[in-house]
Specification:
67% helix; DNA-binding; homodimer; 6 helices; alpha+beta
DNA sequence: CAAATAGTCAAGCGAATACTTAATTATTAT
DNA sequence: ATAATAATTAAGTATTCGCTTGACTATTTG
């Protein structure tokens, strides 16, 4: 698993969630699968815009979709969310252990 | 704490981390505090650009900064990261419990 | 004090985003 | 078969974003 691919993966997750509308779509879909139209309704955006949001979410692995007839069902995909969780876990140790000794570091650091 | 303020807070965290350079800056600073110049060095960007990144990170609560003489020290701030963690935790239950019954839901859903 | 260093601010530029409208396709309902 | 519904695609537009350059303000340092 190359470092670069991983980076772009998590990048797409952050980018997807950086948008308020998409975040709310993820939340909506976390309750139960929804169609693209259903996802569009609460916001004052066109269906076309909603389709584009769903595509962004799908590429990032935050949702899966499945076409059933003329409708596309959108549902959460654990992949994107666990990627986010993993990223967070990997870094948590880092800064948590650091914070314990932070004041100490600050006292030593100013060597300029 | 109003719902809207919370939303914009997490929004700024996602937006901040959506950028590769800023993500790496957070990691660098997780090791130990660093000056703005030190943060700029590994990337081929100007100091001015680095300043802007630090400002974005600071507004999102991912880092704190402290001016010491002509130098500005940048260090991790637990706030932004725990905001992210909290957002994740709040949603995890939702989709995790959902996923157990997901195949069932899919079997029931197609009512069109 | 003069020169070098670290950072900051403002303006501007190109690329990426989030949107729209309009045209098109596929499916379901009458 | 016709009409309505759901989604998709393409193209264009306005805004936001990451970045640069250039001017300016501290602070060290020689």
């Amino acid at each position: 698993m190359s470092r670069h691919r991983k980076d772009t993966a998590i990048e797409s997750v952050f980018q997807a969630l950086a948008d308020r509308t998409r975040r709310q779509m993820v939340e909506r879909v976390s309750q139960s699968p929804a169609t693209v139209s259903e996802l569009a309704r609460p916001f004052s955006i066109t269906l076309a815009a909603a389709v584009q949001h769903v595509q962004v979410l799908e590429r990032s692995g935050l949702v899966r979709t499945e076409k059933q007839g003329r409708v596309r069902l959108v549902m959460v995909d654990p992949a994107g969310l666990s990627a986010l969780r993993q990223w967070l876990d990997e870094r948590r140790n880092l800064w948590e252990t650091r914070l314990d000794g932070l004041s100490t570091i600050l006292r030593e650091k100013p060597k300029r």
